[in-house]
Write a structure and sequence with these properties.
The protein has about 260 residues and is an alpha/beta fold. It has eleven helices and eight strands. The longest helix has 21 residues. The termini are close together.
């Protein structure tokens, strides 16, 4: 059975796309068939992986599939990356939020419908947009399991509280249960300053015994791997101690 995981936080700049690439890379390196889905109209995941042409391509695209799920097969929209597969974003998705709301036809369940037949992969990882609007809700309801990237600062604590309130609302309105599998505290620079230490302590205390909290240190190797259109697990990527952390996250994702 295919497992679907959303990677979401409405706050920008928390390394959602970088974490999506590296969790996908860690899974793929362990022999897991992975599909990464770019649900952000800005297309950062699509661009970072080197698929700029697909982002501006003519229909059909993910935009069209979300407009009319019954008329499109995911397999026809997927492109192959050297580490894993990608369902790219398209520039037309900037109109999607407004279009979905105007349609009035289960606008927050379109992605779930699109992915119903995406069974060729072991894990589907979905990079959500930085918002709490209908597109992010589509990711949450299509997966019901989340990884939440944050940074070690007060603004991430506030954003996390907003996200958790939104998850409660979706659970109530759609009669579902949504699991947060873990928090990925990204771009952590050592030695820790007081704000970083206080934030990490807050995350650990807030979720102690219930949700995993992983810390990913700021590493040039991670940035260079993404610049080279891949993960730190790619064949030519340089070594970094953070591969162990991403391997731990992948093990949680792959554990059913």
């Amino acid at each position: 059975m295919t497992r679907r995981i959303g990677i979401t936080n409405q706050k920008g700049g928390v390394s959602k796309t970088t974490n999506t690439i590296n969790v996908a890379g860690a899974l793929a390196a362990d022999g897991v068939d992975v599909l990464a889905v770019d649900m952000d109209p800005q297309g950062y995941l699509t661009h970072r992986l080197g698929f700029e042409d697909e982002y501006t391509s003519d229909p059909p695209s993910l935009y069209d599939a979300l407009q009319s799920p019954a008329d499109h097969d995911v397999d026809d929209l997927v492109v192959a990356h050297e580490e894993f597969d990608l369902l790219p974003a398209n520039i037309d998705m900037f109109h999607l939020e407004q279009d979905l709301i105007a349609s009035g036809m289960r606008p927050r369940l379109r992605l779930k419908t699109v992915l119903e037949n995406a069974t060729a992969w072991d894990v589907v990882l979905i990079d959500a947009p930085p918002s709490l609007g209908p597109l992010n809700d589509n990711v949450v309801l299509a997966t019901e399991e989340l990884l939440v990237p944050v940074e070690a600062d007060e603004s991430s604590q506030l954003a996390l509280n907003h996200l958790l309130r939104q998850l409660d609302t979706l659970e109530d309105n759609y009669d579902t249960h949504i699991d947060v599998l873990g928090l990925i505290v990204s771009n952590v620079a050592y030695p820790l300053d007081n704000e970083q230490q206080a934030a990490i302590d807050w995350f650990n205390e807030r979720f102690e015994g219930r949700v995993a909290v992983w810390t990913v240190r700021s590493r040039a190797a991670i940035k260079r791997a993404v610049k080279d259109q891949g993960s730190v697990f790619a064949e030519d990527a340089e070594d970094t101690d953070m591969t162990d952390v991403y391997a731990q996250i992948a093990a949680e994702v792959a554990d059913e």
